[in-house]
Amino acid sequence: MGAQRTTSGRDTVAAHRWELVDFLGGRCACSLNGGCWHDGPCDVDDARCLQIDHIHGGGTQDIRDKGSSYQMIQYYMNHFAEAVEKLQVLCANCNWVKRDRNGEHAAGMKRRATNNELR
C-alpha cells in the first residue's frame, strides 16, 4: 500500500486519535494551565477543532522517535500515565498561539508579529 492509506486505515487512525482526545479530557485545556491568549475559559469541545499538544513542546521529535503520528498515538494509548504527564488537548487557535509564544516553530519558520504587537 505504500504511502496511501485505505479508508478503513484512516478511520482507525481517527478512532484512536478521538479515543486519546477523550481520555485527555475531550475539550480545550488552555484554561487549566492559565495564561491563554483570550479572557475566560475556552469552551471548545468540537473534536474537529481539537489537537493533541505536547505540554512542554517536543512534539515533532516525539513523532520522529515513535516513527509516525499514528505510532505516537498508539504508544500513548498503551501508556496513559505518560500521556497525562506529557500531553494535553488544545483547540487549534490556542495551540497555535501557544506554539508562537513558546517558540515551538518547525525548522525554518520565523515568528511573525501579531496584530497587537504591530499597534
Radius of gyration: 16 Å
What structural category arises from helix and sheet content?
A: mainly alpha
DSSP strand count: 2
Order the strands across the largest sheet as they lie in space. Answer: 1-2
What is the distance, rounded to the nearest whole angstrom, between the alpha carbons of the first and last residues?
Answer: 52 Å
Order of helices and strands: HHEHHHEHH
Estimate the strand proportion. 5-15%
- The domain count comes to 1
- Assembly level: single chain
The helical percent reads 40-55%
Mean pLDDT score: 83
Low-confidence stretches: none
| Largest beta-sheet characterization | 2 strands, antiparallel
Number of helices: 7
Molecular shape: globular
Give me the secondary-structure topology.
Elements: H1 7-23, H2 30-33, E1 50-54, H3 59-66, H4 69-78, H5 80-86, E2 87-91, H6 92-102, H7 115-118
Antiparallel strand pairs: 1-2
Helix pairs in contact: 1-4, 3-4
Describe the structure.
With 119 residues, this protein is mainly α. The chain has one domain. The chain is 51% helix and 8% strand. The chain contains 7 helices and 2 strands; from the N terminus they run ααβαααβαα. Strands 1-2 form a two-stranded antiparallel ribbon. The chain starts with 6 loop residues before the first helix and ends with a helix. The mean pLDDT is 83.
Quick structural summary:
This protein is mainly α.
List keywords for this structure.
119 residues, two-stranded antiparallel ribbon, 7 helices, mainly alpha
